[in-house]
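the two lines:
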Amino acid sequence: GAGVSQSPRYKVAKRGQDVALRCDPISGHVSLFWYQQALGQGPEFLTYFQNEAQLDKSGLPSDRFFAERPEGSVSTLKIQRTQQEDSAVYLCASSLVESSYNEQFFGPGTRLTVL
Amino acid sequence: RKEVEQDPGPFNVPEGATVAFNCTYSNSASQSFFWYRQDCRKEPKLLMSVYSSGNEDGRFTAQLNRASQYISLLIRDSKLSDSATYLCVVNWRSGTYKYIFGTGTRLKVLA
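prediction for all of em together
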């Protein structure tokens, strides 16, 4: 595909349920980022991968959040025992290389609603 | 203090107006700067990078002031299609590269 894709686009979960969000970055992109965007806010950094290595997970809000990119392409963000405050749009972005000047290409996001 | 601050707006301007947004950042070691545009319920998309000498892309002009730690975006001759949220993004290296987004400034261009 031409761009970053994410699935599902919408997810409704009951409080306490586990969810898994998928990101397919642009083919060949080394860097992959996950962000959380609450309503009316800018994207907040969650975690960063360079190929399969998770180099920064300082933004993950709790140990209920876990991300992986085992083969250096597709990534999954997992949230265990979801809480209402986890409701947000989860955005994935990829860029070609790790550089401070590279454009990040965003996927359409997964809108998570926790009831 | 937030690392990247923007006036959330909304800025309501008539078509054809010139509008300017500012963004301040707190980390003096910041290396690169961007403006992203985000339409309602859509993903952010790069509008333009911001270079030290300032840069222009059609009706859009971006400026960087490192001494005062702010960047600006000027939109001339506003179009209805410019209505969106404009996100200021600052990048620095702290182990890995960190991209910090502002909360965004909402612009509504009125007919």
